[in-house]
């Protein structure tokens, strides 16, 4: 039996060994050897061992070891609470209790009773909306200014370190206000749809209604680009890549990426089930989307944007309806909402790792399933 | 005996920061670690991840490692437990496999293909016991301790695994 098992040829064994050695060599170079004492008293040695275990658990590498152990067990044995995010960044989460900021180490802060929010550029501030108020806040919850408007939603912040604009929608349409709360004005009367700022300057906003996608310089008011949507359908989301070179527009029946080459409709996988949510990676190269069917929902990625059906890969499926999906700022991880399981599922973009978190509603004091609004940069 | 002394010397050297000692440990133990992970998971990418993460975990725990213990069994125990966990997780979420939508061409049967196919028909738990016994050369008692299972269970899994393999082959 031993000879039989040792005769099995394993594909890529040599390459695998050399890849691993390079990883180990690099990890070893970063390690700081601990001086060893030779004759410690037994009690002292035990105390040090316990301390070392705690230290290992609390240090980033130790944390990673513990996380790896958790990750391999999969969704069936999810973590009972959000102990940490799998990668850098901070989440904004909307629950019945309000908007929460979740730090990388899992700590949470309730900002106030708002229903939608997004990060400012560089993650310095938060813009939040409640029924009849737009507000900007520090990440610790301190309010900087507020603006009373009817039925506020979809607040989005853009700009540079010195000059910013906020776009939002209220009962009158799509509006723009400066980052300091001044110069509030109506840009598109009666607008209903999704909007997204192109990163950086000049202040360029994309907004997608049922019938059109428009890209506009908001300071000059000039329309830079406009395209009709065929077939017309309600827009779920619009999102730019970090470079501002690609724009994703999502509806329940289509995913379309716009760039300098024109529009690229993406085939959304087998069956063409309705799209529940979608997100563009900050790199602009990959798209993730959720398809919801009656019995089974699936999370898909298109790792390299191209229009054919073969581009889509299923990363994860499960019973019941999935909610929205969001990319981590480094485009290495995705977070998927799974309300039926009361779980968030963190999925590595290559599909090789999964980490699930249970009891999400309870952790955010929510009667309905909490919604991940935004996953932003580290502070 | 000499191999054991060499290994302790390499562990001591690695604890002091010697890359060549670490490399000696790696080159000695990688083949079996990777083979064991592959034979349990039947997935080369997963085997690489598992073996690599196990070595990384070993590096992180190097300072607290007791040099009187043999390094290989300690490492292989981590590898096999991770491989079992990975296989169980895959089985639990069999529908969540990464689907490559471009089907691969049918490869020619590799050496050992029959054994591999027969092994694949066993459960991960049975595969792990067979692999630990015949690839990693653990005794049934050591397997029982590593997997935290009664020795009778190990003997029974081993017997059933070998019977199934014998029938298949």
What's the level 1 CATH class of chain B?
A: Mainly Alpha
Q: Whole-Å distance between the termini of chain B?
A: 36 Å
- What's the domain count of chain A? 1
- Give the overall average pLDDT of chain B: 79
Q: What is the level 1 CATH name of chain A?
A: Mainly Beta
Structural class of chain B: mainly alpha
Mean pLDDT reading of chain A: 82
Compute the number of structural domains of chain B: 1
How many E-type strands of chain B? 0
Beta-strand fraction estimate of chain A = 35-45%
| Beta-strand content estimate of chain B | under 5%
Broad structural category of chain A:
mainly beta
CATH homologous superfamily classification of chain B: PhyR, sigma-like (SL) domain
Q: How many DSSP H or I helices of chain B?
A: 8
How many alpha or pi helices of chain A?
Answer: 5
What Rg of chain A, in angstroms, do the CA atoms define?
24 Å
| Overall number of strands of chain A | 28
Query: In CATH terms, what is the fold-level topology of chain A?
Result: Methylamine Dehydrogenase, Chain H
- Give helix % range of chain A: 10-25%
Architecture overview:
Chain A contains five helices and 28 strands. Chain A is mainly β and 379 residues long. Chain A is globular and about 80 Å long. In chain A, 39% of the residues are buried. Chain B is an all-alpha fold. Chain B has a single domain, classed as Butyryl-CoA Dehydrogenase, subunit A, domain 3 (Up-down Bundle). Chain B is globular, with a radius of gyration of 17 Å. Classes of the chains: A mainly beta (379), B mainly alpha (169).
């Amino acid at each position: 039996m031993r000879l039989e098992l040792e005769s099995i040829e394993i594909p890529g064994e040599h390459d695998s060994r050399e890849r691993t050695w390079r990883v180990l060599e690099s990890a070893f170079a970063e390690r700081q050897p601990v001086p060893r004492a030779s004759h410690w008293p037994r009690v002292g040695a035990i105390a040090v061992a316990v301390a070392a275990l705690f230290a290992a658990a609390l240090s980033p590498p130790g944390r990673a070891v513990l996380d790896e152990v958790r990750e391999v067990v999969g969704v069936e044995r999810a973590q009972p609470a959000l102990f940490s995010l799998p990668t850098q960044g901070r989440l904004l989460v909307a629950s019945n209790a309000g908007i929460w900021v979740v730090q990388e180490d899992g700590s949470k802060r309730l900002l106030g009773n708002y229903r939608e929010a997004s990060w400012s550029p560089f993650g310095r501030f938060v813009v939040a909306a409640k029924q009849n108020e737009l507000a900007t806040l520090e990440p610790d919850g301190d309010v900087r200014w507020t603006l009373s408007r009817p039925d506020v939603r979809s607040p989005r912040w853009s700009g540079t370190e010195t000059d910013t604009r906020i776009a939002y929608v209220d009962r009158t349409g799509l509006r723009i206000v400066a980052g300091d709360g001044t110069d509030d004005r109506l840009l598109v009367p009666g607008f209903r749809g999704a909007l997204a700022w192109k990163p950086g300057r000049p202040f360029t906003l994309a907004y997608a209604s049922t019938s059109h996608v428009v890209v506009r310089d908001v300071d000059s008011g000039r329309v830079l680009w406009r395209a009709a949507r065929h077939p017309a359908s309600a827009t779920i989301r619009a999102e730019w890549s970090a470079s501002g070179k690609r724009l994703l527009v999502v509806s329940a029946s289509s995913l379309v990426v716009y760039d300098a080459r024109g529009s690229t409709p993406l085939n959304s996988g087998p069956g063409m089930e309705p799209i529940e949510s979608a997100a563009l990676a900050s790199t602009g190269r990959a798209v993730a989307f959720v398809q919801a069917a009656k019995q089974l929902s699936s999370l898909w990625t298109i790792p390299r944007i191209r229009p054919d059906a073969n581009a889509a890969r299923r990363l994860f499926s499960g019973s019941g309806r999935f909610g929205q999906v969001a990319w981590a700022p480094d485009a290495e991880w995705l977070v998927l909402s799974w309300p039926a399981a009361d779980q968030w599922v963190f999925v590595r973009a290559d599909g090789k790792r999964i980490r699930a978190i249970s009891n999400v509603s309870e952790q955010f004091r929510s009667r309905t399933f909490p919604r991940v609004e935004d996953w932003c940069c580290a502070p | 005996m000499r191999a054991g002394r060499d290994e302790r010397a390499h562990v001591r050297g690695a604890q002091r920061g010697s890359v060549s000692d670490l490399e000696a440990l790696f080159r000695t133990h990688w083949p079996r670690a990777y083979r064991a992970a592959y034979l349990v998971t039947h997935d080369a990418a997963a085997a690489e991840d598992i073996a690599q993460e196990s070595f990384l975990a070993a590096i992180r725990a190097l300072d607290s490692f007791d040099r009187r213990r043999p390094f290989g069994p300690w490492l292989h125990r981590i590898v096999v437990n991770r491989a079992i966990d990975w296989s169980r997780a895959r089985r639990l979420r069999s529908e969540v496999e990464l689907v490559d939508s471009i089907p691969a061409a049918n490869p020619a049967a590799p050496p050992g293909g029959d054994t591999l196919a027969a092994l694949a028909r066993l459960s991960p738990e049975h595969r792990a016991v067979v692999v630990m016994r015949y690839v990693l050369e653990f005794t049934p008692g050591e397997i029982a301790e590593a997997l935290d299972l009664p020795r009778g269970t190990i003997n029974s899994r081993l017997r059933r695994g070998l019977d199934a393999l014998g029938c298949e082959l």
